[in-house]
């Protein structure tokens, strides 16, 4: 049985409503605070939860109290609190050593939110400025929600995202005050997120802001499917209260249960849970470097621990043919790889991005052929005892060496190595 969740959003969704529903399901506020403090924001907010009444129904309200007003030392403190950009928030998340799923999901939600905000303002996602109040609020709401879903043990699907489903979302209406004056509801970032995901929406006649940008980013990133509830056995329901009072109770209902659909269980039994890891990507375009240097750069980067390096031919300014050089490496090798690019190439600037990478588990096995031994890279999905092998590849260099020694086609050695591996498994 897969543990799954359904978000029922009759009055929309916001980050604090998600937190309220998760705390209502038993996620300890102390656990969330402890983990969130690893982001280095313990001086900036206080998290608390209490029961509130919404139109006669009891639900859990989580408050993110911002502590900025206690700071008087303006110069130093103001800089510290003056909003944050995406790369800084990503860095905070990466340095916090959160549970792996919570880290991956948080990064994905922030990326989605920044892409939407950037599209609205016509700027790159990295340039999006999460305003003073918004930054801490959004960090607590987004990272807290991801921590809570991970804590509850909701299963991941084959892409590594949680098995969370969600109702269609109400559009809301009217206007709302924002940094740029009055704005129509849904605000532009929410509309953009709905457009990016192809979200089903409807009007319930309530002319208020019902879906916030943070709520929309959480839903459009983490939800697997929108619409009716999946076939499930309900075990527990969490109730998260919103702030404003509405004609119907302003409560987000999070149903926690087990999937009862045969299809979901079959999918789960073959479930390909790739491991999600964070990877850094460096790229720069170059049009004034001796091509002989490129081979040297490749070797130096691989020696420094790069996972992969590649070039693509591009046309550059003044009609010069150039190359786009891309390096993929683990975040702890980023500075080493960057130093090599500056030292060995003529580049003046290197772009850095942080991405999520789904990787299969892998190991090297040896097989014997009549011409000699060949190493085989075997990749699999799922748990060791229930593994589902998805890729078997003989090592190129081993095949090449035997092909040269015995004056045989490389393809023939490759075929024999595979044949030998498969026959040893039967």
UniProtKB/TrEMBL annotation:
GO molecular function: lyase activity; nickel cation binding
Record keyword Lyase present: yes
Family matches, as InterPro entries: Ni_insertion
Keyword Protease: no
Annotated keywords: Lyase, Nickel
A Pfam cross-reference name: Ni_insertion
Origin superkingdom: Bacteria
Family according to the record: Belongs to the LarC family.
HAMAP family named in the record: LarC
Protein name: Putative nickel insertion protein
Organism in which the protein naturally occurs: Anabaenopsis circularis NIES-21
């Amino acid at each position: 049985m897969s543990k799954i969740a359904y978000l029922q959003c009759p009055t929309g969704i916001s980050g604090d409503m998600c937190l309220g529903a998760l705390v209502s399901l038993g996620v300890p506020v102390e656990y969330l605070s402890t983990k969130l403090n690893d982001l280095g924001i313990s001086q900036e907010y206080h998290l608390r939860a209490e029961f509130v009444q919404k139109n006669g129904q009891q639900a859990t309200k989580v408050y993110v109290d911002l502590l900025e007003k206690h700071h008087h030392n303006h110069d130093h403190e103001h800089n510290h609190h003056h909003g944050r950009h995406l790369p800084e928030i990503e860095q905070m998340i990466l340095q916090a050593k959160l549970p792996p799923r919570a880290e991956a999901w948080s990064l994905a939600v922030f990326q989605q939110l920044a892409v939407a905000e950037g599209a609205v303002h016509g700027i790159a996602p990295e340039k999006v400025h999460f305003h003073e109040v918004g930054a801490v609020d959004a960090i607590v709401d987004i990272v807290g929600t991801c921590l809570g879903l991970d804590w509850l043990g909701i299963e991941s699907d084959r892409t590594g995202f949680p098995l969370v489903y969600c109702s269609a979302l109400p559009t809301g209406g009217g206007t709302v005050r924002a940094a740029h004056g009055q704005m129509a509801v849904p605000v532009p970032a929410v509309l953009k997120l709905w457009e990016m995901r192809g979200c089903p929406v409807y009007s319930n006649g309530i002319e208020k802001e019902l879906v916030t940008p943070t709520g929309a980013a959480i839903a459009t990133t983490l939800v697997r499917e929108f619409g009716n509830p999946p076939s499930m056995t309900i075990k527990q329901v969490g109730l998260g209260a919103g702030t404003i009072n509405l004609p119907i109770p302003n409560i987000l209902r999070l149903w926690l249960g087990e999937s009862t659909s045969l299809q979901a269980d079959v999918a789960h039994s073959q479930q390909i849970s790739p491991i999600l890891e964070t990877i850094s990507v460096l790229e720069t375009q170059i049009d004034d470097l001796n091509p002989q240097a490129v081979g040297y750069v490749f070797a130096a980067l691989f020696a420094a621990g790069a996972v992969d390096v590649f070039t693509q031919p591009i046309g550059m300014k003044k009609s010069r043919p150039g190359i786009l050089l891309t390096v993929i490496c683990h975040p702890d090798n980023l500075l080493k790889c960057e130093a090599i690019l500056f030292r060995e190439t003529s580049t003046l600037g290197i772009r850095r991005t942080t991405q999520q990478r789904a990787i299969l588990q892998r190991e090297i096995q040896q097989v014997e052929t009549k011409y000699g031994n060949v190493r085989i890279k075997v990749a699999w999905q799922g748990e060791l005892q229930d593994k589902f092998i998805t890729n078997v590849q003989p090592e190129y260099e081993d095949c090449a060496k035997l092909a040269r020694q015995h004056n045989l086609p490389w393809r023939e050695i490759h075929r024999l190595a595979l044949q030998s591996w498969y026959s040893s498994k039967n």
